[in-house]
Amino acid sequence: MLTERIEGKWIDCFVNTFTLCGVHQGERVAILSETLSRQVNVHLSELALLRLGARPIHVVVPTPPQQIDVPIRSTGCSVAIGGNEAVIAALSACGFVVDCTVEGTMHAPELPQVLQAGARVLYVSNEHPEILERCAPSLPVRARFESALRKLTAARMMTVTSAAGTKLQIRVENAPAGGGWGAIDAAGSMDHWPGGLVACFPTANAINGTLVMDRGDINLTFKRHMESPVRLVIENDYVTRVEGDGLDAELMRSYFAGWRDNNAYSAAHVGFGLNTGARWDSMTMYDRGDHNGVEQRVFGGNFLYSTGANEFAGRYTLGHFDLPIRNCTIALDDEIVVRHGVLQGDLA
Length: 348
Prior knowledge:
Largest sheet: 8 strands, antiparallel
Number of helices: 8
Oligomer: single chain
Strand order of the largest sheet: 14-13-10-6-5-18-19-20
Helix content: 10-25%
Structural class: alpha+beta
Number of strands: 20
Shape: globular
Distance between the termini: 34 Å
């Protein structure tokens, strides 16, 4: 396990990221954490904010007890705030919020109220600082994201194919789209670091076809590279069959079934990675406790398929898989934006 301590270079990295977020002298900033948060990132956030002349406060809540018998990982839906109005009020009173919760508040029910108050929220993913350093936000990633978002927002259909056998048709017309580039400077908005992802939440009955996870693709809920192919048959947004005779398929079938909730099989969001500085293979270099897998969500050219809650389709569940797939070709209507896992055109 890597050592976690304060390093000057990491303070510099946090300063640069918060500068891209528009943090300024005298700005009120909340650092939101929980008792099981990675403390080195909490401390680095405070030191960087003080160097910028901001006025940080700490909002710390106890990590809540486990409520179910299935381990919850990789959801982006922290339950640490627990509807506490005092916490929401404190966050809403600040111009910038550094989210250091374990799971992140991207899909937390309290987030809309904080954003409506005008706060900028940056989720600092629960990673070792070395990963944050390697995947720091940059203006080229921002340019790719803004272009990709325009393309996705204008498209009606996303088509995804691969030599491994993936063949998906996804209706993305009117699907709420977003993502980010790793920093946030617009009031009432959120991003996550590492960043570099464009994604959308398709409306109901929008996805049909077959998704094949091949060797080297990633199941981020398990923080595991696939070692044997798994074939997911998807009908009207729901995984109806998990095919494969290896351990990877068996683990997925077991975890899906463990929720005893049909919505755990449904589609959450789809998108593709834009961060050419992130690496699909870096996960092999870290112990599982050292990383949160966000780098693998954003590496350039991956197709990200996620199962679980999708409020825009009226589906709610705690079950969640994030599945970055390599070597796919992705088309938005007639424009190929990723070819065999490589970003194309102005996204390259």
